[in-house]
Structure formats: C-alpha cells, structure tokens
Design a protein that fits this description.
Blueprint lengths: L2 E8 L6 E9 L2 E5 L9 E5 L2 E5 L6 E4 L3 E7 L3 E6 L3 E5 L3 H19 L12 H11 L2 H4 L7
Antiparallel strand pairs: 1-2, 1-9, 2-3, 3-6, 4-5, 7-8, 8-9
Length: 148
C-alpha cells in the first residue's frame, strides 16, 4: 500500500461530496465506505433484516494505467482525469492534497512507463510535421532506408 486516508469524493449523479477511505495500491486507487482500521464485518439489525457491510470490497476503483492527469484544483480539490471520466476529490488540507497528488502522479507515471516502451508526448509536433509536409515534397521529407 502506497498511501491511504480519507478524502471526499464528488458523486457523479447527485454532485454531493461523500467522505470515503481511499487506498492507493499498485496501479489502482480504490475507495471504501469506512477506514481500514474499522475493516471488520459490521452486523446491522434493522427491522429484523440482517445487512452485512463488507469493507473488503471497494465502493469504486480507478485503474491508473488509463489516467490522463491528476491536478490540484481550487483550494483543496483534486481533479483526476481518465480516458472515460473525471473524478473530483477533496482533501482535508492543502498539504494533504499535495501529498495525494504527488503519490497519484508517481503511480500514473510508473504504471504508464513500465515495460518495453516509453510513451513520449511532444506538444506541437503534429503542427511542425504538418508544416514540413506542406513545404516539402514527400521524396525529400521521407526516405526509405531499406532501399538505400
């Protein structure tokens, strides 16, 4: 486990802020209803109905291999963008937010750059190549090195 602690998460549908216990482990950020300290099965009796709340199964999780960015936002908020959605989190303090952003960014970088290849993004490269291809004909810009 790399980091754990409480954060508020903005609900997608209702836009309410709900406090959860977050765990950053391997390539995943997971959130739970309660902290790991109280991670015991809770037996709730309500109108003779027995409900098991299992803290071992997360309420949600984000695979950080597909994360695009993790940025500080406003005073204590964190904006975590994936290829499918944006998740809004809120820390209890500015230093806590800085720690979470740093830890999540480290995991994103590691998750996306492990293996045989490294992805390198060069801003403006497409515009530069488009400019060069418009100026030069294809014979001078691209050379087939297999033919010599």
């Amino acid at each position: 486990m790399l980091k754990s602690g409480s954060l508020h998460k903005k609900a997608q549908r209702t836009k309410r802020w709900i406090k959860h216990w977050f765990i950053l482990r391997n390539d995943t950020l997971s959130w739970y209803q309660s902290s790991a300290v109280s991670a015991q099965k809770v037996l709730v009796h309500t109108l003779h109905i027995i409900i098991f709340q299992d803290p071992y199964f997360p309420r949600g999780m984000i695979d950080l291999r597909y994360a695009i960015s993790c940025d500080p936002y406003q005073e204590k908020d964190i904006r975590l963008r994936t290829n499918t959605k944006t998740i809004h989190l809120c820390a209890d303090s500015v230093p806590s937010r800085a720690e979470w952003v740093k830890a999540i960014r480290r995991v994103i970088f590691k998750a996306q750059n492990m293996g045989d290849s490294v992805k390198v993004l060069l801003p403006g490269l497409r515009k530069l190549l488009a400019f060069d291809t418009a100026r030069a004909d294809s014979n001078t810009l691209f050379h087939d090195y297999r033919r010599g």
